[in-house]
Specification:
By secondary structure, this protein is α/β, with parallel strands linked by helices. Helices cover 25% and strands 24% of the residues. It is elongated. The structure holds pyridoxal-5'-phosphate.
């Protein structure tokens, strides 16, 4: 017996495709790949990867080998950003993805396990994962079947001198390694212009409707929209309050809908009193605190809405992030498991 979920995540596949196409165009002569780690930023990695492959995307990035294995049935070209632990060698030898080697130890491990096509991350200043530029210059990568040399920008969503510094260091490795291709830019990096594109770009956030730099907004469409069912409609008399800690008091008698959605679903508590549902372009505000599993919406403007009806939330990522102070990345990847996705 299937029990229909009282909340669903609408995923606009056309918008997802359109965003990839826009990012591919903005990547100029470079090829555009896709970061689909963290379950496709919370949307569903398989569905996302299928859709993007249909749009023409050929290079996919995940964080770990379990994520790569989940995509294996699709037969795509997948790179595993977090490299090759001893525990990963068996998975890596199975051949459904290639490692992004991040340390000299991982390079040795890959060679000793039989080698083959791989990627390498070189650290140009973020000091997260990657081998050093000096080691690369000294020949650490010589003899590898190196498909793509990657580096990662620390501040691509800001206009700061660090971007040009990282770009210059990375560019200085051109033709100095056996790499067939070079790749630097995430979503925001694409917006920094053609010097940052190299051969392959790796957007994540912007594919899913996030806007990493304001100047990219015009090219990107919203992809996700949480929807939830009205569990109860009630009239709250003037002077009464709604929700935990009674943070909202009705100034006049107010029609309120209680929706099956809360912070345990990723609808963040920081949107208390700030978020809204959208009906026919009209914003219906969230009243009071977001609870774990419920929110209250002012539906005075929509007398026809009743128990069992569905409401779509405003989930424009840039706007919701500005309102709540929660990053667009967290707003996406935090969307929970109780949603029916589709
Ligand atoms: C997550 C990630 C990306 C994608 O970044 P966005 O900011 O989401 O576009 C690209 N490269 C690496 C190494 C990453 O970890």
């Amino acid at each position: 017996m299937e029990i229909p979920a009282p909340l669903r995540l609408r995923i606009d596949r056309d918008a997802l495709m359109s965003n990839w196409q826009a990012l591919d165009r903005l990547s100029g002569a470079a090829t555009c790949g896709a970061a689909v780690k963290a379950n496709g930023y919370g949307l569903g990695a398989i569905q996302v990867a299928e859709t993007l492959a249909g749009a023409g995307c050929r290079d996919f990035f995940v964080a770990n080998w379990a994520e790569a294995r989940a995509l294996a049935p699709l037969g795509l070209t997948v790179s595993v950003l977090h490299g090759l632990r001893a525990e990963d060698v068996a998975a890596a030898r199975a051949g459904f993805a290639r490692p992004v080697l991040n340390t000299p130890e991982q390079i040795v491990r890959w060679r000793e396990s039989g080698g083959g096509p791989c990627d390498v991350m070189v650290d140009t200043g973020i000091n997260r994962l990657g081998v050093s530029v000096e080691a690369v210059r000294e020949g650490l990568l010589d003899g590898l079947m190196l498909e793509t040399l990657l580096s990662h920008l620390a501040c691509a969503d800001e206009d700061v001198p660090m971007n040009a510094r990282q770009q210059a260091v990375f560019a200085s490795l051109k033709h100095r390694t056996p790499a067939r291709r070079m790749s630097l830019a995430n979503s925001a990096g694409i917006g920094l212009g053609k010097d940052y594109h190299f051969d392959l770009t790796r957007p994540g956030l912007a594919l899913y409707g996030g806007v990493p730099r304001a100047d990219m907004a015009a090219h990107l469409r919203s992809v996700v929209r949480p929807e939830a069912q009205i569990l109860q409609r009630r009239m709250v008399p003037a002077g009464e309050t709604v929700g935990y800690n009674a943070t909202w008091t009705a100034p006049a008698s107010t029609e309120v809908a209680i929706l099956n959605l809360g912070y345990a679903d990723g609808y963040r508590r920081a949107l208390s009193g700030l978020g809204a549902a959208i009906v026919d372009g009209v914003a219906l505000p969230v009243l009071g605190r977001v609870s774990m599993d419920l929110i209250a919406i002012d539906v005075s403007a929509r007398p026809g809405l009743a128990e069992g009806d569905w409401l779509a939330m405003d989930y424009d990522l840039a706007r919701a992030s500005a309102l709540s102070g929660v990053s667009q990345y967290e707003l996406l990847t935090g969307l929970g498991q109780r949603f029916a996705r589709g």
